[in-house]
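Below sits our specimen:

——
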Amino acid sequence: MPPYISTRAFIQWLPDPPSEPTSTQVLTSTQRRFVDIRIPADPPLEGVDPAHVEWAFAGHSTSKIVNGKTLSQWHHWIDSKTTKPEDVVDKGEMLPEDDSGLALEKGEMVNPATGQLTGYVEGWRDGEIGVVPVPGEGVVRGFHAELRGRGVSIDGLRDGAEGGGELKATDDESRLSIVLQHEDVVRKSRGMVVRLGHLCQGVMRVGDDFTHQRWEWTHEDGWRQTCVSGKLAMPCDILTIFGEQMCTNTTVKYGNEHDLTWQCVEAERF
């Protein structure tokens, strides 16, 4: 299946009426890796305080048909609410679209308002994966120099850019699906960043510290970070500029106090 963007239109905690108190957006790659970020519907312009993130998590999803029903499960690998994401139960039945064309999901999960396992129905709307202009040569070279000054290193890029070599750029446009992933067992750190076209989201946990970021490209403003929580550094900005040069051989050294290794695990242009 192709990658897809999902925006939640409503959630109904049964038997209460439906509502949507959050801005919930999920980016899912071809290989079903996903980043799901749920923040208040009207966050302050300067970003979102970590205490106000309703839920943000990443992992991979699976689906199967049982007795004619499509059952999906989202396997959490990073979770803003727990340091044991594998214990999270997140599964539901996918129902036919409603009259307004929303995909419906029905299941049980913990209601953040009550802390109780509760039945729910969610309505999801598919979003278009936007086409983004490839950054010009001057932008690419300038950002590459900035990264070197910050101590960031990138190896295994396309176009002969391995080891800090010369980068090439075009004035073309592209629609990309890219996933970067990080894990360091000793430091108890994990991270995942997904870019689909004009959107990029990432989540990361190091011990008890958690961070999320959401970026969006528009014709008016170019790439802009629309929300962030936490102080951990993630390479979302790398994907906004170097997406075209990424391949599954690419590694990025990027971090706060220590260099953390990120591996490109998916890269496709479509």
About this structure: The chain has two domains: 4-127, 132-269. The CA atoms of residues 178 and 243 lie 7 Å apart.
